[in-house]
């Protein structure tokens, strides 16, 4: 079992970090007191592999001395737990700007005190924790996408490091648009094998149907332009932190043209190095 303790300054991005790690397969527990961490680690270890990667978020809301956290960390490591602590830091002007933007009050702010005073007080309280952290990550200048990239580099699996996953899905318009699709392309302008008797009962995964669809120059031109667009878009989506993109390719029934085009686009994106899956929603309807 891998145990990660996330701590740091209020407003430094602990909640966002937890959300990103959750997308990466971590089981997240927020605001767990230090004294309960050892028991929770024992519970996870006895779960027969159900909790393989766990992240615990710890901050001033626990309402206990931070020495308890440091003592717990040492105890976990001495017990043989694969445990690390990630400390999130941010400069004070950025913290102030974040609190003003969200209109939230700092958890250490008392009546009449400023956000700056509360932030500096917390910084001094956490100095010992920061010094003991395995990893210190400064989030001052990190966008959500950059934060995700940093976390993937630090804690990501091989699949996480491959970047954005693309699912290319064929569908039939007469069965409705796929609600999960991020991008939708209509290929009903291409030659339709449905009206060729010997192809009507076949699908776009079969060579005779593909040959019929690809005999048209407009099919090849469409594929060139679609491939160029996707190769342009995908790195930008990835840089912004998007982990999944569903590309819908639609024809009338979802048996012929959309299937052939979806299969071809999937093949080309895989050849370009992207993590791609292929699905055909309506092929058996």
Compile the SSE list and pairings.
Layout: E1 2-8, H1 14-23, E2 27-30, H2 34-45, E3 53-57, H3 66-78, E4 82-89, H4 92-102, H5 115-125, H6 127-132, E5 135-138, H7 144-155, H8 158-161, E6 165-172, E7 183-186, H9 207-214, H10 217-239, E8 244-251, H11 257-271, E9 275-280
Parallel strand pairs: 1-3, 1-4, 2-3, 4-5, 6-8, 6-9, 7-8
Helix pairs in contact: 1-7, 2-3, 4-5, 10-11
Key terms:
single chain, 285 residues, alpha/beta, Rossmann fold, 5-stranded parallel beta sheet, 4-stranded parallel beta sheet, elongated
Description:
- With 285 residues, this protein is α/β, with parallel strands linked by helices.
- It folds into two domains: 160 residues, P-loop containing nucleotide triphosphate hydrolases (Rossmann fold, 3-Layer(aba) Sandwich), CATH 3.40.50; 116 residues, no CATH class.
- It is built from eleven helices and nine strands.
- Helix 4 crosses helix 5 and helix 10 crosses helix 11.
- The protein starts with a strand and ends in a 5-residue tail after the last strand.
- The relative contact order is 0.14.
